[in-house]
Amino acid sequence: MAETQTTVNQIDNFIGYYVFDGVRPGDYYIKFNIPTGYIISSPYTSGDENTDSNITDQNGPMTTDIFTVSLGQILTNIDAGAYQPATIGDFVWDDVNKNGAQDNGEPGLPNVTVKLFTQSGAQLATTTTDSQGKYSFGGLRQRLYYLQFTILNGYEFTAQNAIGDNKKIVM
């Protein structure tokens, strides 16, 4: 059993580079120790074995499939993809003065349904705002998303981007 740590490849300044030198011919698998707070990328998703993550857990947690090393062979495509998950969330409030801005003292709206979609329109999750009007979707991969809010009876959407902040969705 050999152990190594990732470093910076001095040739192309690629972070996460690792090497096992002097490996004898035979069958092997690699076990990765991924830092806390990271999630393993799904294996073999792009169809390019040179860039896909190879962690399948077939030989235990955080391991690759078994691969064969031949005499004189150099393998440079046994990879592990990991990412820190993202969270999307904020606050839905009662825009009491209907100015399109979240002003101090305007209360949150509970029980507003919020749906999370991928850019292509696939719905991933649904939640409702809590008693303070807060909502959150966690454990997300880096990609484009959009949200859909279901308006409560007796309410209408207020002006969007009224103060030039397109990061706030208001009711």
How would you describe this protein?
The structure is a single chain. This protein is 0% helix and 28% strand. The protein has no helices and 11 strands. It has strands at 7-9, 14-17, 26-28, 39-40, 67-69, 82-83, 86-91, 113-118, 123-128, 134-140, 145-150. The strands form 5 sheets. Strands 9-8-11 form a 3-stranded antiparallel sheet, with no helix packed on it.
Q: What is the tally of helical segments?
A: 0
Gross geometry: rod-shaped
Helix-strand category? mainly beta
Straight-line N-to-C gap: 59 Å
Radius of gyration: 24 Å
Q: Multimeric state of these chains?
A: single chain
**Number of DSSP-assigned strands:** 11
> Which strand-content bin applies to the residues?
25-35%
Uncertain spans:
none
Q: Output the strand order for the largest sheet.
A: 9-8-11
Order of helices and strands: EEEEEEEEEEE
Q: Strand count, sense and closure of the main sheet? A: 3 strands, antiparallel
Mean pLDDT: 85
What proportion of the residues is helical, as a percent range? under 10%
Keywords:
mainly beta, 171 residues, three-stranded antiparallel β-sheet, 0% helix, two-stranded antiparallel ribbon
Q: What's this, in brief?
A:
The chain has 171 residues and is an all-beta fold. The chain has strands at residues 7-9, 14-17, 26-28, 39-40, 67-69, 82-83, 86-91, 113-118, 123-128, 134-140, 145-150.
List the helices and strands and how they pair.
Elements: E1 7-9, E2 14-17, E3 26-28, E4 39-40, E5 67-69, E6 82-83, E7 86-91, E8 113-118, E9 123-128, E10 134-140, E11 145-150
Antiparallel strand pairs: 1-2, 3-5, 4-6, 7-10, 8-9, 8-11
